[in-house]
Amino acid sequence: MEINKKVFLDDNNVKEFIKFIAAKWENGLDFEVGIKHRGKKAVYKYTTNLKEVFETYSWQYSIKTELEIPDEIAKAGFSLSESEKVLNFAKSKLLINGEINPNLIDLKDATEITLKWGGVFTKGNKNKVTDISYDLKKDYDEVLKKWKEINEYNTGFSPKDNFEFTSNAGFTKIYSLLLSDFVIYDSRVSVALAYLAEKCFGEKIPETLRIYIPASRVADLTMRKVNDFFTSTYQNDSKHFYSNVISSILLKQTLKLINEIYPSVKLRDLEAALFMIGYDIRANELKRNNL
Fold it and tell me: Distance between CA atoms of 163 and 143, rounded to whole angstroms?
């Protein structure tokens, strides 16, 4: 199904879902988040809104690399502030005055650091960094062009679009650094959005909100009646990018509503809250069903 930004945002079901998520920043959430500490088992905290979920954010990363990283940036960390320092450093090597850095070595270094931070320096992603002939700048330029066409010029997009760049749970992290209004779309964020859509619409989720979930997390949607709706990306870049675009447009509009009351909230805060929900959906659903 091809759609464009205007048609998507004008859809009444989309408007309802945006209001639903925005309201959850303040109240109406019923969720237990696993708060993880180094070397310790997670302790679950009951939360009633997305703001509380965001405040529990943690991501245990480890960047094993020979690349030079400033001493003030932790190669292994857990907190939001530690992650932010890593990503801001990577971003400084990706962009110069808002443009893609023409230095391919810097681009590859920044890409390696970001992928390792995200735990997704896997074979396919790694090859694009280690292959000296692979032109990452060409890919990144194409992503920026594609997003501008969709976001500013209202060009249509679909899960069957053809393009040359990679779109997966690894490179979405790079694109989120290149584009301030483009969210990370990995397994955790995707499954959190699917979970909220089920809470909003029950079994009758509208077609306009169909997104594709990385295969490893489809099973986490223990609400089995929506598993047939939220199917896997099956490592399909077109389906992943389509879902990433839908999520970016959706969450950016949600943020506008949140900012009417909480002007300091950022898109990355909302993204981080979804990340934490995605972490713990399976545990929550099993608890609720006494499994």
Answer: 9
For 121-127, which contacts have Cβ atoms below 8 Å and span 24 or more sequence positions?
A: 121/170, 122/170, 124/166, 124/168, 125/166, 125/168, 125/170, 125/171
- C-alpha dihedral (226, 118, 46, 280), degrees to nearest 10: 30
| CA nearest to 32, candidates 21, 51, 47 | 47
Per run of 10 residues, the mean pLDDT along the chain (length 291 residues) is 96 98 96 70 85 94 95 95 98 96 97 97 95 95 98 98 96 98 95 93 93 74 64 91 98 98 98 92 56 39
Instruction: Find the length of the chain.
Output: 291
Decide: pTM greater than 0.85: yes
Which string of DSSP letters, residue by residue, matches 117-177?
HTT---HHHHHHHH-TT--HHHHHHHHHHHHHHHHTS---B-TT---SS--STTHHHHHHH
